[in-house]
Write a structure and sequence with these properties.
single chain; 130 residues; mainly alpha; 5 helices; 0% strand
């Protein structure tokens, strides 16, 4: 059984960040086919969003998006994107020192959670209060 050290986890996180930035820059390339561009924008926005669809404080399930969904989305975009666009995006990602944050995605996820909270409150009120 392999022992996972902090250094290994740190290296994997660094690689994931680099891939996220690569997808982010690839999504901005006008030569990328529109359907791939839309998926890339969604994946990059979700990966760069400061708010998760599934909050991390929910045991096990909260980390699934970070461990499974985000890497699968990044791998899909890297696989679908033409190699020359990926290479140009990798160069931009290496040159980039700061992580872009998608405030639009954050707003969308806040809106989703508030809507769920509101609907749950209404359901609870109608079921148990009235």
């Amino acid at each position: 059984m392999a022992i996972v050290t902090f250094e290994v986890v740190k290296q994997k996180a660094k690689e994931l960040k680099k891939q996220t930035l690569t997808v982010y820059f690839a999504s901005r390339d006008p030569n990328l086919p529109m359907y791939i561009r839309i998926i890339a924008i969604l994946v990059a926005a979700y990966a760069l969003s400061p708010i998760d669809l599934i909050p991390d404080f929910i045991p096990i399930v909260g980390l699934l998006d970070d461990i499974i969904i985000v890497p699968l989305g990044l791998a899909l975009i890297i696989h679908l994107t033409p190699p020359e666009i990926i290479e140009a995006a990798k160069i931009k990602a290496l040159q980039s020192t700061e992580r872009p944050t998608s405030y639009t995605a954050a707003f969308i996820f806040i809106f989703i959670w508030l809507t769920i909270l509101l609907l749950s409150g209404q359901w609870f009120y109608h079921e148990f209060i009235t």
